[in-house]
Amino acid sequence: MKKINTFFKEKFKAVHIVILAVITVLILAVMNLYLIPTIQETAKIYGYKMLDLYTFGYSMEEVQGLIENLSDRQLYLYKFVQLPLDMVFPIFYTLLFVAILSKFGNENGKLLILPFALFIFDYCENVLSFIILSTGANLNAVVCVLASFATIFKSIFLNATILISLILFIVKIFKKRKSK
Fold first, then answer.
1. Which carries the bigger pLDDT value, residue 161 or residue 9?
2. pLDDT tens across 97-148, in order?
3. Which residues contact residue 92 at a Cβ distance below 8 angstroms, ignoring those fewer than 6 apart?
4. 55-93 pLDDT, tens digit each
């Protein structure tokens, strides 16, 4: 982790962080402003939402309810547009968080485990979600439990990564102001 930290600290400039942030926000905007509302349109009426939006995990009944309340078009968008985009998204936000953590006081590189763990759990969640959506009514309880755990751990690592990044950023700002 220390080598990765050093690489990002030395090679990534503010402009690179801004570019990563813009790409990350654009992908997030497409997902949050178009794909998620379109996919959830009918399922939300019955109290269901997309699997990765259940911060604290979900049950087999919730998975079944979601699948039963998605139209063919919504299922297609979920499997073949949303999930592939959600496979690209973690690459950009991981690079962004690694760059931020490297720049704002992560001297030994140990904090980089957070965005990398986030990346791994998000990918697991996406792959398992695709499997779930592809099986339809033939849900596998083990796959649902694993996917739910991946969602929970993704949420934990996302919140920890954001919180620590913000704290390091604020500390860096105060240190700069204090030194002036």
1. 161
2. 999 998 887 777 889 999 999 999 999 999 999 999 999 879 999 999 999 9
3. 20, 23, 24, 27
4. 999 999 999 999 999 999 999 999 999 999 999 999 999
Q: Are 129 and 83 in contact (CB under 8 A)?
A: yes
The distance of Cα 48 from the centroid of its chain, to the nearest Å, equals 20
The answer to whether 8 and 103 are in contact (CB under 8 A) is: yes
- Cα–Cα dist 142/165, whole Å: 34
Q: Compute the C-alpha angle 131/83/70, nearest 5°.
A: 70
Asked if 31 and 96 count as a contact pair (C-beta separation under 8 A), the reply is no
Would you say the pTM of this structure is higher than 0.85?
A: yes
| 8-state DSSP, 109 | S
Domain of 152 in residue numbering reads as 2-179
The rounded distance, in Å, linking the Cα atoms of 175 and 17 is 20
DSSP 39-88: HHTTGGGGT---GGG-TT---HHHHHHHHHT--HHHHHHIIIIIHHHHHH
Split into its structural domains, the chain has a count of 1
- How does 161-172 read in b/e, with b if 16+ C-beta sit within 10 Å? bbebbeebeeee
Tell me the backbone φ, ψ of residue 105, rounded to 5 degrees.
110, 20
| Residue 128 token pair | 């398992």
